[in-house]
Structures are given as structure tokens and as C-alpha cells.
Amino acid sequence: LCPPGVLPLCCRPPAWDRPARPPPSPLQPPGLPLAPCRSFSNNKIQVELDESSGVAMMKFKSPPVNSLSLEFLTEFSISLEKLENNRACRGVIITSAVPKIFSSGLDITEMCGKSVEHYTEFWRAVQEMWLRLYGSNMVTVAAVNGSSPAGGCLISLSCDYRIMAENPKFSIGLNEAQLGIVAPFWFKDTFVNVVGHRIAERSLQLGSLHPAPEAHKLGLVDELVPEEKLMEKAAAVMAQWLALPDHARQLTKSMMRKAVLDRLVAHREEDIQNFVTFISKESIQKSLRMYMEMLKKRKS
Ligand code: CO8
User: Fold this and answer.
1) What spacing in Å lies between the alpha carbon of 112 and ligand 1's midpoint?
2) Has residue 54 been placed in a domain?
3) Where is this protein chiefly located (predicted)?
4) pLDDT tens-digit profile of 231-271?
């Protein structure tokens, strides 16, 4: 049985609590045939692991906008867990198979007109996804090939490195305030850790979505590259990060992120309670309904 506060998928100790993996054996004889490329795909995410390089490619494939539904989040956490537990995998590149969209963030329909039980389950899945990604021992590179608001931005921010397609039509940011909702403390902490307090404070209060060039100036993404070069660049960055011994990099990553991870772990149930209370308010439900209507009107 899993302890309370932990999804059933997560019966192993989470990555951030585990000792660093030992580096690959230097005794591997040269000239052995290359390990095969393993792939597993579920409804919303496709993963391909190249065992020779130790790099997995994770592609979001949930059209129209890769919104983070309960099903998506669960598949995401399971995929991360599978890779984390596979000793052949040392790094993962996260990108989208949907043109022009990285991820539209949390699925708003999961937060509208549902039961308290549903909101509880949904928020636990959001937390689980972040704990796994932010606390991953693997090198994580986001290849942001489209718009990436709110939860989509959180996924990017949780990676070790962010490369974005150089297209001013693609924007990224934590725009929760524009929806009349508030980014929780661990979204904020993750943001602050990337861009610093002042930029995060202004951007969060205004709910800004930054076009790619501005996001780069603010340090919200590390690099901009032409869209057609994005995957090539992501692979090059990954190779650079994997050139270091895993144990040193992993322990350093853990040292940098542990306080923020621990804070959510310590307040997980309280955070769920806060979310459920907040999202259940009629005024918040009204804001979300209006926002969804605005999206539909903008389309027509
Ligand atoms: N959730 C659910 N449905 C969505 C979402 C979403 N996040 N985003 C878009 N959709 C739907 C649209 O309503 C539309 O539906 P339909 O086809 O039925 O009309 C369909 O997806 C396609 O959308 P668009 O026509 O708008 O597609 P575009 O390609 O023109 O634009 C964008 C794509 C840029 C992603 C645009 O859809 C957009 O801006 N979406 C809203 C993104 C957003 O604001 N997300 C914030 C979600 S909240 C969050 O992630 C964090 C919450 C933290 C919790 C706070 C505690 C209370």
C-alpha cells in the first residue's frame, strides 16, 4: 500500500531521496553492438530511449493543445518514473509533437464544475508530476517548440535547461493572474530559482506571457534557436551535460533544488486543501468559465 499523499504509481522512494546512480561501468568492452532504441507510448506521450546514448526523447502528443489533464499528468509521471528507474537512461529531452504548442498548461476543464474528490485527485497529480520532474536525477532539457503558458511553463522551468524556438508568436510565462487564479508557492519558487525575485514578482503579478525573444532576455529560457535547429541543439546541450560524471551533477542538482522540493513535500496535504478550497469558490469558477468562453470567442 502506498502511504497517504502518494500516487499508487510511486511506490519507490522518489528520485530526490535516492542516492545518486553510479556512473556506467568502465569495464564495458569496446566494440559491442549498440544498445537498441526502446520506445513506449501511451495515449498522450511518446517516449523513445536510445540506450546507446542514454538519452530519451519525450514528446507530448495530446492535440489540440497538450493540456495537462489528469490522464496526461498521470502518464507523464509514469513515463518519468519508468525512465528514472531505467539505468540505461541518463537524460531526457522534453518536447511536443503538436505543431506550435508545447503545452497549454493545466486542463482548465479539470478545474471547472467538478467534485471536491476530483479536484483533490487532480491537484495531487499536478504535485506528483512536478516532484518527479523537478527532483529528477536525469538531465532534463526542454525543447520548447511552441506556446507554453502556465503549467506548460512550469514543466519548462522544472528542467535543467530550456531551449526555445526563435518565433515571437510563441510565448511562455506563468499567466495564472490573467485567469483570476494564483500560482501556488512551488510554481513561484521554481520561477524565482530560474529568473530571480524581481523578474518573477513582476511577471507573476501581471500574469505575463513573454514572447520568445523577451523570455530569452529575462532568462526564462536559456537559448533561442531557429525552429528547424531545435532538436539538434537540444541533443548537443544534452551531450554537454552528460559529459560530466552523473554522481557529481546529481548531487549538485539535489543541493540546489532540495529546499524547494522539501517545502512542498512537507506541506503537500495543506497545499491540496488550499487548492480545493480556492478552486471551489463560485467567484473562481466564474472567472475560469469566463476565461474558457474568451478562448472560444477568440477562435471564432
Ligand atoms: N485547458 C483546457 N482547454 C484548453 C486549454 C486549457 N489550458 N487551452 C486551450 N484549450 C482549448 C480551447 O478552449 C479550444 O477548445 P475548442 O476547440 O473546444 O474551442 C482548444 O483547446 C484549442 O484552443 P485555441 O483555439 O485557443 O488554440 P490556439 O492554437 O489558437 O492557441 C493556446 C493555443 C495559445 C495554448 C491558447 O489555447 C491558450 O492561450 N490557452 C489558454 C492557456 C492558459 O491560459 N492556460 C492556463 C491554465 S492554468 C494552469 O496551468 C496553472 C494553474 C495553477 C493553479 C492555480 C491554483 C488555483
Assistant:
1) 13
2) yes
3) mitochondrion
4) 999 999 999 999 999 999 999 999 999 999 999 999 999 99
In this structure, which residue's CA is closest to atom 31 in ligand 1? 65
Task: Quote the CA–CA distance of 94 and 237 in Å, as a whole number.
Answer: 13
Domain membership flag for residue 84: yes
User: Which pTM does this prediction carry?
Assistant: 0.91
Q: Is 181 in the pocket of ligand 1 (CB under 6 A)?
A: yes
Residue nearest atom 14 of ligand 1, based on CA coordinates: 296
The verdict on the CB of residue 296 being under 6 Å from ligand 1 is: yes
Residue 106 known to be catalytic: yes
Closest alpha carbon to 131 in 235, 38, 12: 12
Question: What average pLDDT does the structure give for the chain?
Answer: 90
The dihedral through the CA atoms of 223, 227, 229, 234 has a sign that is: positive
pLDDT confidence tier of residue 126, bands split at 50, 70 and 90: very high
175 assigned to active site:
yes
- Per DSSP, the three-state class of 6 is coil
Query: Ligand 1 atom closest to Cα of 152?
Result: 50
Strands lying side by side in the sheet with 100-101: 100-101, 146-149, 171-173, 210-211
Q: What's the total number of domains in the chain?
A: 1
| Ligand 1 center from residue 288 Cα (angstroms) | 11
Backbone dihedral angles phi then psi of residue 39, each to the nearest 5 degrees: -130, 145
Distance 49 CA to ligand 1 centre (A): 30
- The residue nearest atom 39 of ligand 1, judged by CA position, is 104
Residue 164 located in a structural domain: yes
Return the closest-CA partner of residue 17 out of 251, 256, 176: 251
| Ligand 1 atom closest to residue 150's alpha carbon, by position in its atom list | 50
Find the domain containing 187 and state its range: 37-299
Residue 183 falls within a domain, yes or no? yes
What separation in Å is there between the alpha carbon of 179 and the centre of ligand 1?
11
Rg (CA), the chain: 19
- Nearest to residue 46, comparing CAs of 8, 108, 96? 96
